[in-house]
Amino acid sequence: MLGRSIAGPRPYLTFYAVCHTQVGGEQFACQSASAAVRILVEEARPAAGTVAAALVLAALGVLNLADGFTMPRYSAEWDAAVQQIEAALTESRSAVTSADPWDSTVAYAFGDPVHCGLLYGVPDGMGIQFDEAAYLTDPAHEIHSRYVLTAADTPTAARLQADGWTVLYESDRGVLYEHGTM
Prior knowledge:
Blueprint: E1 2-5, E2 8-15, E3 18-23, E4 26-31, E5 37-40, H1 44-59, E6 63-64, E7 68-69, H2 76-94, E8 105-110, E9 127-132, H3 133-137, E10 147-150, H4 155-162, E11 166-171, E12 174-178
Parallel strand pairs: 8-9, 8-10
Antiparallel strand pairs: 1-2, 2-5, 3-4, 6-7, 10-12, 11-12
């Protein structure tokens, strides 16, 4: 879509992230203007970098330029995975007596190959924090959240294992860790 900025004649291309999914018999849809990516054409070098990044994400299957970030299609397998995440977090939270909000937060390792569709399993009343994987792998950064959702065989998973985190859920789509000594 070619348009003009309110601030002046700046042509840009806009890609909107639109997702549709069904979990447990419920349909979910989202479209967000905040999820829009605008490529300014007035400065060729930054625009070329953004286009290149979008093409790389599209090639990796993370970004579908027609539909935005990909979401899982409903299947009994996905429904079971989401329910397992929810059950693991619900059981773990029932044993936690702390009122610290970080004990009710799942950090999502953005940039690791963990599927974001698993976040549908985070129960009501819990928070989700999006952390770049590079932040989570750096030992200089303290991980405040009690739970981390990442993928197996990643630097994030290696750090969590080295620091003594416990696996609550594991599949080919992601691994949910808990740090119980917080």
